[in-house]
Amino acid sequence: MSDIISKIGFLQQGPFAIPRWEALFANIDVLGRGALVTLLVSTLGLALALALGTLIGMMSASHVRPAKAFARAYVEFFQNTPLLIQVFMLYNAIPILYPGLFIPVIVIGILGVGMYHGAYIAEVVRAGIQSIGRGQLEAAISQGFTYVGAMRYIIIPQAMRIVLPPLTNQAVSLIKNTSVIAIIAGGDLMYAGDSFAGRFGHYGPTYIVVGLLYFLMCFPLARLAHRLEVRTRGN
Amino acid sequence: MIELVGVNKHFGSHHALKDINLEVPSGQKLVIIGPSGSGKSTLIRCMNMLEKPSSGQVIVDGVDLTAHRAPIAKVRQSVAMVFQQFNLYPHKTVLENVSLAPIVVSGVSKEEATESGFKYLERVGLAEKADKYPAQLSGGQQQRVAIARALNMHPKVMLFDEPTSALDPEMIQEVLEVIIDLAHGGITMVVVTHEMGFAKEAADRVIFLDDGNMLEDGTPEHFFENPEHDRTKLFLSKILR
Questions:
Q1: CA distance A171 to chain B (A)
Q2: Do B83 and A136 touch (CB under 8 A)?
Q3: How many domains does chain A have?
Q4: What is the complex's ipTM, to 2 decimals?
Q5: Nearest-angstrom CA–CA distance, A50 and A159
Q6: A26-80, pLDDT tens digit by residue?
């Protein structure tokens, strides 16, 4: 067995060599802690993105001009600039604008992915609302519902069934995008992997395992999105 | 009960309603007739402000709905509308459809709204469908549920916007019978329809709209037997063969 291994060159030396794997598994708890941070940022970031996305999506679908204009500006700004730059700006601009205000990097990460994916979710929510026939809103309004009441009781519950699959896909993207907080030393899975690998050059095994851990977090959600999509089409 | 004063409505360059003056007293059964595109749907939709007039006043139950910050949502609670496409809430059961707005909008208790909702479902002959979803009902049944939903708001006015136009011919009668039955009560009713038989039987006033103008205004007898305008005679000759 060891005879065979000794003949396979890339396991002897280079980025994927056996000693590098051994070093990684001896320190696997580092990646475990990083994964927990990623889960935390993902969960809270998703909650923020959903809240912002629903609100801004409703504003975007409304006919109230200032609300609509604000929603459009928000969506265009966050969709058309890189998340990396947004997070960098949050991290570096807040201490200048508000000297003395200390915000933990994890919170910056949550704000970053939350606001960024909030813009994408707003577009999903807007499309969902607009896919519900105008007659539904008119029926509700004619019964004395306010716009917000009609949204809450009539339109959003119907739109929800349609937007659930694309929303789940957004959650998958959000988990992967939390990796940008590595650039501000976020302590997340990407950062943990990066800093461990960088110390001794164990990039090969580390990136494989880090990738696998992201996969384990995202794949169940992707499957869920697929199942929801089949169910929506079934109706 | 409803008063329109100098109402105009423009859609872009299209002048859909031209200086409409109309007063509907409490308890009246008004039928609006006219060719398609004549503005009759726009007219009835102005009565609950689903269309906002470009100029003029809409006064319902003493409240000027065109005034700044008018309590439109409040007034709409007592002005129920039945739509051509039914517009039932597909994610709610039949019973929930009729009781949702009374509970959420009017603040009626759930027990009370459910009980009265059931009573109105009985009245339109659909009590046994209370737990079904709209998609499980025929078009005629859905429209009868929509009428029960309107009634459960205990409205002062009922607006019907072509209530039978989307129905298969064999279902028109079951819906008309319910509306005729309601017309025997004291409620104020405005009905846009192509059903001339209904107009003759249930209306106590008919107006005829053509190209945004109100050409005729009188009793059904006046309208069907000696209309004033040639345009009306032409319309009637085409529709009553």
A1: 26
A2: no
A3: 1
A4: 0.91
A5: 14
A6: 888 889 999 999 999 999 999 999 999 999 999 999 888 999 999 999 999 999 9
